[in-house]
Amino acid sequence: MSGRRILRRFSSSISDLLTIQKRTNVDENEHGTALHRAVQMGNAVMAQSLLGNKSVWIDEEDGRGRTALHYSMEQDSYEVVEVLVNGGANLDCVDFHGTSACHLACKEGKIDALELMMIHRADPFCVDKSGKTPFDLACEFGKEKMVEYMLLMVDNPALLQHAGEAHKASALHLAARNGHTHVGVP
């Protein structure tokens, strides 16, 4: 396929997403925006184009209170996360469960995404409505490399271990309860 044909097809896809965006404002709260859809497809170029056109608000929430940044944590595209973070996404925005992008990055083991958000001043100590911090989720889901990274990243590791103890279980207890005995927390 020639370069022109690919470019024509790609620009047609962006136009289609923008048209869908305009037609579905009623459904927007439930299913999200064209930016949400581009992110869910893992398409960084399309996300960048939508943000460049100023046709979407980067922190628009869907029906569950999730922004495009939340959905980017579920994708295998660091580029999408980079587009959103560099585009000015609110890094500490939480959904209806109090879950931030940091929570999702730790749960999914996305060290590169967490590191980028930390460079841009995301809060690694935020607590969701269950009383859990991103560190708690890394332990609970057995993300050993994420746990190691977070312990190295902070000056006082005790802060990570005790920030979200409203759920009455330490990060080590959460790891052990879920069979992740290989996750060692000092």
From TrEMBL:
UniProt xrefs under InterPro entries: ANKS1/Caskin, Ankyrin_rpt, Ankyrin_rpt-contain_sf
ANK repeat copies, ranges: 64-96
Keywords: ANK repeat, Repeat
PROSITE patterns: ANK_REP_REGION, ANK_REPEAT
Name assigned to this protein: Ankyrin repeat protein
